[in-house]
Amino acid sequence: MSWVAAALRLALPAAGEALGALWRFAMRPVGRIVLLALLVAVLVAVAYLYGRHDGRAALAAELAGDRITILKDGKAIDNEVLAADDPALCALLGGCLQPDAD
Q: What pLDDT is recorded for position 3?
């Protein structure tokens, strides 16, 4: 007999006894309450993780759209600045004050 067969022969009855004890516990009123609480906790965790994943995906999609808009706006501003002459640059900067000639 191999050591694997011997280990299985020892482990299976112990596992059966453990499952039997768990089943007996689950059939008691306290066991049902504990199992119901565990089930609710698992469902809440799954719902939380699913919602968090959806929120991340929505935020990533929104930020990607904003990045494209910002890049397009930045390119338009750069082209406008590069094409501007001195008075146009002053206007883009909000106006330039001329020093007083004394």
A: 72
3-state secondary structure at position 7 = helix
User: What pTM did the predictor assign?
Assistant: 0.42
HEC assignment per residue over the chain: CCHHHHHHHHHHHHHHHHHHHHHHHHHCHHHHHHHHHHHHHHHHHHHHHHHHHHHHHHHHHHHHHHHHHHHHHHHHHHHHHHHCCHHHHHHHCCCCCCCCCC
CA distance 28 to 69: 62
C-alpha distances (whole Å) from 82 to each of 68, 88, 97 are 21, 10, 21
Q: Do residues 31 and 25 make contact, with C-beta atoms less than 8 angstroms apart?
A: yes
Backbone angle region of 94, left / alpha / beta, with phi > 0 → left and psi within -120 to 50 → alpha: left
Average pLDDT of every residue of the chain: 75
